[in-house]
Amino acid sequence: MAEGELTKRDFEALARFRFGIRRYLRFSEETVRSHGVTPQHYQLMLALKGFPGRDWATVRELAERLQLRHHSVVELVDRAQGQGLVERSPHPDDARSVRVLLSGEGERILGRLSALHRNELRRMDDVLALPTWQDGDGAIDGR
């Protein structure tokens, strides 16, 4: 077999991992909707609560974290604010920017939903484990 060529086992590992990702995403979408939240709002709230070093972020930072365009994040924040999930406050160091943070209601909903997500990830541990690859010399690479 030529170097870099995938084996049947490699394809099976990739397919199993992809199936696990899709199964998790479907669980997530159905779970958040059953709690009256859109998947995009859940992702926004999680990005805010999980932002490194603080509990707020700017729209620009959220756009990077969510891999969305700036104007799409502005619209998402507008809708989430309308539902009482997030709040805006002036940025103390940059008058052109605002801080986006979770509201009390957003904190409550995010806590409940994230606990459900954590439990599902624990159940799916085997399916979502990164595949291991065997190179041509038989060595195993877990990256």
TrEMBL record:
InterPro entries in UniProt: HTH_MarR-typ (IPR000835), MarR/SlyA-like (IPR039422), WH-like_DNA-bd_sf (IPR036388), WH_DNA-bd_sf (IPR036390)
GO molecular function: DNA-binding transcription factor activity
A Pfam family this chain is assigned to: MarR_2
Gene3D superfamilies, A to Z: Winged helix-like DNA-binding domain superfamily/Winged helix DNA-binding domain
Residues of the HTH marR-type domain: 3-143
Coiled-coil residue spans: none
A GO biological-process term: response to stress
Protein name: MarR family transcriptional regulator
Annotated organism of origin: Pseudonocardia broussonetiae
